[in-house]
Design brief:
Elements: E1 7-9, H1 15-23, E2 31-35, H2 36-52, E3 56-63, H3 67-78, E4 84-88, H4 93-106, E5 115-119, H5 127-132, H6 140-153, E6 158-160, H7 163-173, E7 178-181, H8 202-208, E8 212-215, H9 217-220, H10 225-243
Parallel strand pairs: 1-2, 1-8, 2-3, 3-4, 4-5, 5-6, 6-7, 7-8
Helix pairs in contact: 3-4, 6-7, 7-8, 8-10
The structure holds cytidine-5'-monophosphate.
Amino acid sequence: MDKKKPIIALDFKSDKDALIFLDLFSNEELNVKIGMELFYSAGPDFVREVVRKGHSVFLDLKLYDIPNTIEHAMAQLAQLEVSMLNVHASGGVDMMRAARNGLEQGVSKGKEQPILIGVTQLTSRDPKTNEDEMQLAVTQAESILNLAELTQKSGLDGVVCSPLESEKIHQKFGTDFLTVTPGIRLSDHKNGQDDQVRITTPEKAAHLGSDYIVVGRPITKATDPVKIYEVILKEWQEALGGIK
Ligand code: C5P
């Protein structure tokens, strides 16, 4: 999956809507994320179709279950030839190791192993919810670092996190440990316009060390999605270029 391209979150309700959107981009090869909404409506065949079209797919199903179930589920998903998958880091080390084993067993001979990442804390989660509802005794930052540590210990490739956490995660766990970051908004976005709380621009995400940015609604809900994609792509690539 090409790090220089944003991953577009295909949060559409049907394969029909997603394909209409993808057709806007002619033959351009994209990084796309298929999440629960689309996967549950369109299923594995749709994922195969998007891969066949030449796009790289991040299958964002955020699995969380007992290790045995996760291992077998991952072995199935491995056959879809997606480029990236994820599990909740809060499922623990045994569960994450089972996910890795399942993938290793399921990927066809000669095919590349997909990137496997752990979800630390959702970018929509605010610290107050952690305290009041989840009764977490540590701060949100401490919890994220703990979950990232468990993810690395389990042999996964990196974490999904807010761009605001990328820097610290790289300092602690190394620059090879990937940070995949949603919560990306253009600079004209006003906080509170939607459910994302811990947000940054593509430029700032690059400076904070995000390895991959995930962008949904700013592109999919735009009047001209291709134009906004190009704006985000340019901002991201220019910022990455400035860092090297
Ligand atoms: O529309 P928006 O840009 O907010 O889309 C962000 C995408 O990233 C959504 O598909 C959401 O499910 C996903 N995501 C997230 N926070 C995480 C993990 C995934 O927003 N921690």
